[in-house]
Specification:
heterodimer; A: alpha+beta; 7 domains; six-stranded antiparallel β-sheet; 32 helices; 52 strands; B: mainly alpha; 65% helix; flat; golgi apparatus (chain A); TRAPPC10/Trs130_C (chain A); TRAPPC10/Trs130 (chain A)
Chain lengths: 1251, 93
């Protein structure tokens, strides 16, 4: 079998392209060779793939070989099966002939002989050597070629083409290539068919004992190779895939114990990309190949094809799975393989794969998604190599150089130890090395973390190596199968017994001691390292890898290279987290070498990732490292921020001692001489919120003090030198934020604190807390975050998402207090009267309020007198709102009505404390000064009241609020009046000339008035009658007048002689009334306050009221009365006669006028506008009227109205009599209504109802 | 395809000494979640979590299980792996 294999491989190695045979009949090849070979490779060949679909192959390489060539001649029939793929795929027959006879006799039979072999695909190229000038020769050649075509071409298939050596026809080469391609296609199809048939035959025997995988392999690979030569790579790839499947089935199926392979020197270096590393004969064993080599070989072939297809991504992806699955195969055979063979192989395989795929990778060639995935795979490969490399390094004692980070721990502690059959033992001559190793160990000190953070180091090993190694040795010495089984089981279950500690290790000693002392003695750790190192030197053939393990520096370099490779590639893929986590590992190394800025940059990235995604535990691991870098780099801002972030992490993540260390660092820096005071964001550490409950409410313009809850995340008390908190209005963004400041130092205890800030008056609206800023030493900190509410506040999870609630509401300006006059009715003018000012607080305290009182013109305040203040419960009860809100207050105010005497200082009154919340009335003594004398009027004229006369104003200004910041101003109108308003009329004129003058007194006040006396000082021209001296009957007094009622007093007077001098002196009469008043100040006018000195107890208080009355002597005395007699209703119509009547009556004698002849006759005249009236009868004439008093006569005139409408009626006048002597009684109308004329029936037209 | 399933309790991570590595593993697994989330159908994930939760409830209902401690039930492990495998199958289809 191996013979065939070597031949097969030899054949495979000799060719890598298709062969085209050239049958050179007429020795033409040397002349056409160059032209023919210039066509290679064929630009575009149409071939069929395995499924007989047409495929165009670009640049198909081929080679022309003469049939006489040794390569084509020395073929033995038995080789055909092995080498058929390299047989010619087409035969070109080159002929020329210029003579028909020659063709018939010589050429034709010879050609027939050549083409009789049916298996070959052939065609004839007739070469014409005729010179272009030689027409004869050309003609001949044409004739001969025609013959050739007749002879060899058929309708089905053209097998001839003519090549003009000197002037090739334009389409010759196209024709030539298509014919060659056709031949190749046909041959390929036939051979594919042949191989498939053979393969099928073999496959059917697979379960039989005669089955031989090698035969199957040769056929299958021949087919694959043929496809590869024809550039049908996809088909070739499929063949290899099938081959691999078949191989794995065969290997797993045959129960025979076979050699796995991998025991040769150099096998530790993966050959998964190099198919020629080992020849097939080196892999074969009996009828099958060794798995170790063969699977790598198959993968190498596959990857070669994939690279040819320009699919490095697929190589990487297939390669990664291959490495994993192959690694598992290696693991299951670990006992027969050299120590750590698996790890070493994986490392080399990964690195080889990475190198090959990157070199074949064209950037930007594939879609972005694919590219990302490619880099992810590279990252995975690097990462895998890295882990395995760390594992080996750990075994030889570089464990101390490996950072015990979560990344490394995660990959290493879950990775089982190698399981060799026997753990390598220390070579006899290695005791010096052991000693040195031990010394090295003693020198290395575990690095302590910054801030004195102490953590149990994360494990880098699945179990304690010491125990594992010794156990594996012991199990060998004891031949303890159970132990081995147990360990395997444990590994399979994936739960290595990590918790067992070293002290349980001596169990190995208890196993029976038998073979030799070097085995039965448990090895020390340094011995294990040395032993492993020696064993690995045996395993590893790659000098580079060996070098990487030779010293800790070399190890570190390789470690860094692999880590960087993984990180970079992950960064270029989607797997940012993997990349960033590895950045942390790189940072650890750079840190170790003192490249702190680099380390800080990387650590920052890592921290940002963990912080951004909320992985606090991981952050707690990395953040101290970053802080240390920053401290060394003297990056104060960064360092402070890191300390704050450390403090903000979950409390459980650090010990109190450690947290205190963080805080002391913050304080140390804050109080040190910082060059630039750094701003620091402590949002995560100091949070704040308003107090729970409803927001604080303030009235407009009121200051206050705002309590704020601040949570401190510091482990100890911390002193804030100053603090400032902004308030942001929620209603209006334009309005800037206001800052509340507290300049005194505030000590924050850990946890919840409540601080109180002074709040200056704010504009109306609601406010939320903005930013907390403050100062600790040189440090300016700010916090944006609202407290999420401590757990003691609420355990409501939803509260985390609640928007910041308003902390302060400043109400829109509203009335806080009301001042009004207690009494609306009028007070007495010119007397001391109490004016009541009702002070009503509206839900606002008037504590220590001050009232300024400024009397207006015409008003004076008796400021020497006390001012009374009393609570006014009556007002309180009227106020519904107050009643509902504060019942208790009402009760108290009802039960005890308080009052107090206050005094006025500089026009100001200070309120007593009891009046701060309850409505109260302030009684101020004032006097309105009125200079004018009250005037009476005649009852016939209507009274013209002038309100302004009696009105005075009091300007009030109330200062209240905590800082007297609230001011309320109001001007109160107060009405004053005289007690009476007097009207007069003459009730009767007696025949004896006595006039009865009635004086009517109207009460103007809401108080009972008592009149004790009244007398009239008459003006000139009037005199009193009788003895009463102008006083009415005294028995009428005292006369009591109820509020707003009237009373009358009669005076009897008569006309006296007129004295001109007197008349100018006294043109008006004066009425004097002595009266008393009894009223209540809460209602209106009341008895005026007397001076203490003049006051007599019990004496009735009498006041004088004086008013002027104008009396007029009578001037008119009519002697005739003319009355208009009413007209009948509807009497006035145009064109209709109507009778107008006037009655003339004699009222008295004309005793003064001496009219002799016309005494008994009266001249009358009717006046009417001639356009509206037609008078029928005498317009003017004399009528007789008796001279006796009471004589009457009626004058009738017929009139006819001429126009309709309101018209003036005719008027009767008496031209001889003075107007003053005529009284019109009843008076005629000014206008009368004249109706239009009645309808004339002759003009009537019947009205149609529908019209 | 599911690469890793972690049952994370409130305290279960902090219980072990080397819990950090588990934090790391789960954190890095999010890369896979980020990458794959577009491929996964919503219904599949829902179904997966429903079954997963049922298995979890059964496991912690065991009277011998101390709440908050690591779940040690082998049945639970088996069930979870069955669920994981079936998820891979259904989403591949």
């Amino acid at each position: 079998m191996s013979n065939f294999l070597s031949q097969f491989q030899a054949f495979k190695n000799t060719v890598n392209h298709l062969v085209i045979a050239v049958e050179d009949v007429n020795d033409l090849w040397p002349t056409v060779k160059n032209a023919f070979e210039a066509r290679l490779p064929f630009k575009r060949a149409s071939l069929n793939n395995k499924t007989r679909n047409s495929v165009f192959v670009e640049k198909l390489p081929a080679e022309f070989i003469l049939t006489t060539d040794s390569r084509l001649r020395s073929r033995f029939p038995q080789e055909q099966l092995l080498s058929w793929f390299r047989e010619p795929y087409a035969t070109v027959v080159l002929v020329t002939c210029e003579d028909l006879d020659e063709f018939k006799t010589i050429l034709k039979p010879r050609l027939k002989l050549i083409v009789q072999n049916d298996e070959r695909e052939w065609f004839i190229v007739f070469v014409s050597k005729a010179q272009p000038a030689n027409d004869q020769a050309k003609k001949m050649a044409k004739k001969v070629y025609a013959k050739v075509e007749v002879e060899f071409s058929s309708k089905k298939r053209e097998r001839c083409c003519k090549y003009d050596m000197h002037f090739p026809e334009a389409n010759f080469w196209e024709d030539f290539e298509s014919k060659i391609t056709e031949c190749i296609r046909n041959t390929l199809d036939r051979r594919v068919q042949f191989y498939e048939d053979e393969i099928r035959k073999l496959s059917e025997q697979r379960l039989m004992p005669v089955w031989n995988f090698c035969n199957f392999f040769i056929l299958k690979e021949s087919l694959a190779f043929m496809f590869e030569m024809a550039h049908l790579h996809e088909d070739a790839l499929r063949e290899y895939d099938e081959l691999e499947l078949c191989y794995l089935e065969t290997v797993n199926m045959s129960g025979k114990q076979r050699d796995f392979g991998g025991a040769d020197h150099g096998d530790d270096q993966a050959t998964l990309l190099n198919p020629g590393k080992k020849s097939l004969t080196q892999m074969v064993q009996e009828d099958l190949f060794r798995e170790f080599e063969f699977r790598q070989y198959l993968f190498a072939c596959t990857s070669k094809l994939l690279f040819k297809l320009n699919r490095p991504f697929e190589v990487a992806s297939r390669g990664y799975s291959f490495i994993i699955s192959f690694s598992n195969s290696l693991a299951s055979r670990e006992r027969i393989l050299p120590f750590c063979m698996r790890e070493v192989w994986v490392i080399t395989a990964c690195l080889a794969l990475i190198e090959a795929t990157i070199s074949h990778y064209d950037e930007g060639h594939v879609v972005p998604d694919m590219e990302q995935e490619f880099f992810r795979l590279l990252g995975d490969l690097y990462s895998l190599a890295r882990v395995k490399f760390m594992r080996i390094a750990y075994l030889v004692g570089y464990g101390t150089d490996i950072e015990r980070s979560p990344v490394n721990s995660a990959s290493l502690s879950l990775l089982p130890w190698p399981k060799p059959a026997v753990w390598p033992s220390v070579p006899a001559d290695a005791s010096a090395e052991v000693l040195e190793k031990e010394k090295l160990f003693l020198q290395t000190n575990p690095r302590t973390k910054h801030f004195g953070i102490h953590r149990k180091p994360l494990p880098l090993e699945p179990t304690v190596l010491l125990r594992e190694a010794n156990r594996r040795r012991a199990s060998l010495s004891a031949g303890n199968g159970f132990e081995m089984l147990d360990s395997r089981q444990a590994a399979l279950e994936g739960s290595p017994s990590q918790k067992l500690n070293v002290s349980s290790m001596p169990r190995a000693n208890s196993s029976p001691v038998s073979i030799n002392s070097s085995i039965d003695q448990p090895m020390r750790l340094s011995e294990i390292y040395i032993a492993a190192e020696h064993a690995l030197r045996q395993t590893i053939s790659n000098p580079e890898l060996l070098k990487s393990l030779s010293s800790s520096e070399e190890f570190e370099q390789k470690y860094l290279e692999l880590t960087k490779g993984a990180a970079d590639n992950y960064h270029r893929s989607w797997w940012k987290r993997h990349g960033v986590a590895l950045d942390g590992e790189i940072a650890a190394v750079t840190f170790k070498h003192g490249h702190f800025d680099q380390a800080a940059k990387s650590y920052e990235k890592v921290c940002a990732l963990y912080a951004g995604e909320g992985w606090q535990d991981l952050l707690a691991e990395v953040l101290p490292n970053l802080a240390e870098c920053q401290k060394i780099l003297n990056d104060q801002a960064g360092y402070l921020l890191s300390c704050v972030r450390l403090l903000s992490l979950d409390e459980g993540l650090f010990l109190t001692k450690e947290r205190q260390a963080f805080q002391s660092e913050v304080l140390r820096l804050a109080h040190s001489e910082m060059k630039d005071p750094v701003p620091l964001d402590v949002s995560s550490l100091i949070t704040f919120s308003g107090n729970p409950g409803p927001p604080m409410e303030l009235c407009d313009r009121d200051p206050g003090s705002l309590p704020v809850t601040v949570w401190s995340g510091f482990p100890d008390d911390i002193t804030l030198d100053s603090i400032s908190l902004t308030l942001t209005p929620t209603h209006n963004a334009d309005e800037g934020v206001k800052a509340l400041k507290s300049s005194t130092a505030i000590v924050l205890h850990p946890g919840r604190n409540t601080i109180t800030l002074d709040l200056p008056p704010q504009k109306p609206g609601s406010y939320v807390l903005g930013v907390l800023t403050g100062q600790i030493g040189q440090l300016r900190f700010r916090s944006h975050s609202f407290s999420k509410g401590g757990p003691e506040d609420s355990d409501d999870f939803m509260s985390y998402e609640r928007p910041a609630k308003p902390i302060l509401k400043v109400a829109k300006p509203r009335a806080l207090v009301d001042l009004e006059a207690a009494v609306s009715s009028s007070l007495l003018i010119n007397e001391y009267q109490w004016v009541g000012i009702l002070v009503r607080p509206i839900n606002y305290s008037l504590k220590a309020a001050v009232l300024h009182i400024d009397p207006g013109p015409g008003l004076e305040i008796e400021d020497s007198h006390v001012i009374e203040m009393e609570s006014s419960s009556s007002v309180l009860q009227n106020d519904d709102e107050q009643v509902q809100e504060d019942g208790a207050q009402i009760g108290s105010s009802n039960s005890g009505k308080r009052s107090e005497c206050l005094s006025l200082h500089d026009g100001k009154i200070e309120f007593p404390s009891w009046a701060s919340d309850t409505p109260s009335t302030l009684w101020v003594l004032i006097r309105a000064v009125g200079d004018s004398l009250s005037r009476g009027s005649s009852s016939a004229t209507t009274r013209t009241e002038n309100i302004v006369d009696g009105m005075r104003t009091v300007a009030l200004k109330l200062e209240f609020g905590v800082f007297h910041n609230q001011i309320f101003e109001r001007t109160l109108p107060v009405h004053f009046t005289y007690p009476f308003y007097v009207t007069t009329r003459v009730t009767d004129k007696c025949n004896d000339g006595t006039l009865l003058l009635q004086v009517i007194l109207h009460s103007e006040v809401k108080a009972k008035l008592t009149i004790y006396d009244a007398w009239l000082n008459l003006q000139d021209g009037f005199v009193h009658t009788g003895e009463s001296e102008g006083r009415p009957n005294s028995s009428d007094f005292p006369l009591v007048i109820s509020p707003t009622s009237k009373a009358g007093i009669l005076f009897s007077i008569c006309l006296g002689m007129t004295n001109e001098e007197e008349a100018t002196k006294q043109s008006e009469s004066i009425l004097n009334i002595r009266y008393g008043i009894s009223g209540d100040r809460t209602i209106g006018a009341h008895p005026p306050l007397m001076n203490e000195s003049t006051r007599v107890d019990g004496a009735r208080q009498e006041l004088i009221f004086r008013t002027a009355i104008a009396l007029q002597r009578p001037v008119l005395d009519p002697c005739l009365a003319v009355g208009f007699l009413s007209l009948p209703l509807d009497a006035l119509r145009v064109g209709k006669l109507v009778k107008m009547q006037w009655r003339v009556e004699r009222l008295k004698d004309f005793d003064k006028k001496e009219v002799s002849e016309h005494n008994d006759e009266v001249l009358y005249e009717v006046n009417a506008y001639s356009g509206t009236w037609m008078i029928a009868g005498r317009k003017r004439g004399h009528v007789s009227l008796s001279r006796e008093e009471g004589a009457r006569i009626t004058i009738s005139i017929l009139c006819m109205p001429l126009v309709a409408g309101y018209v003036r009626p005719p008027i009767l006048g008496l031209p001889d009599v003075d107007d003053a002597d005529i009284s019109c009684k009843p008076a005629g109308p000014h206008l009368v209504c004249v109706l239009p004329p009645a309808l004339c029936s002759s003009y009537c037209i019947p009205v149609d109802s529908r019209a | 395809m599911i690469i890793c399933v972690a049952v994370v309790g409130h305290q279960s991570f902090t219980e072990a000494d080397d819990a950090l590595k588990l934090h790391h593993i789960v954190h890095c697994s999010l890369d896979v979640v980020d990458e794959r989330d577009l491929d996964v159908r919503d219904a599949d994930v829902r179904n997966f979590f429903r079954r997963f939760h049922a298995a979890y409830v059964d496991a912690v209902s065991n009277p011998f299980h101390v709440p908050g401690k690591k779940i040690t039930s082998k049945t639970f492990v088996e069930r979870v792996s069955t669920i994981v495998k079936s998820f891979g199958l259904s989403s591949a289809g």
